[in-house]
Amino acid sequence: MGKPLKRHAALVPLSRDHHFGLLLSWKIKKGLNVGFEKERIVRYLEYFFAEHLEPHFELEEKYIFTFLDEDHPMRTVAERQHKDLRTKVEGINNLPKGVGEELSDFAEKLEEHIRFEERELFEHIQQVIPEDKLEELEEKLAFIHRKVEDTWSDRFWE
């Protein structure tokens, strides 16, 4: 494991969100490994996606990805991953509540996506975006970013 990545203050709130996204992935895997009712895991995923992941995706798409040209390879990868994760959640919501392979696949894809953003996309953005633009972003996010507060009561992963 390498040394921790130094994150610009403007991107710190989104990196914290990523921590909770990785926890979501871990919780899904833990719930599946322990053998909990998949319906409980699906309900949690539906809640977490609507309350935290979707707003996070929208924030990134509106304020982070736009720093890059529309056809920039990292932007297109990140946007495609967001679309794929949305599609996976929608598919899970439409399946019988007993299907675990889709939950496991979602957890893996979410983890891959977060690792990509943290290790590649955010690293690139903080290297190519001028400091004054990052400071403007930091000020904007201070007003509009909502900190993750997980209020879900069914703590199946504990």
Question: What would your notes on this structure say?
Answer:
By secondary structure, the chain is mainly alpha-helical. Helices cover 72% and strands 0% of the residues. It has 5 helices and no strands. It has helices at 12-34, 38-64, 73-93, 101-128, 131-144. The protein is elongated and about 50 Å long. The mean pLDDT is 91.
Question: Which characteristics define this entry?
Answer:
single chain; 158 residues; mainly alpha; 0% strand
How is this structure best summarized?
The protein is mostly helical. The chain is built from 5 helices and no strands.
Number of strands: 0
Structural class: mainly alpha
Give the uncertain stretches in residue-range form: none
| Coarse shape | elongated
- The biggest beta sheet, please? none
Secondary structure topology:
Blueprint: H1 12-34, H2 38-64, H3 73-93, H4 101-128, H5 131-144
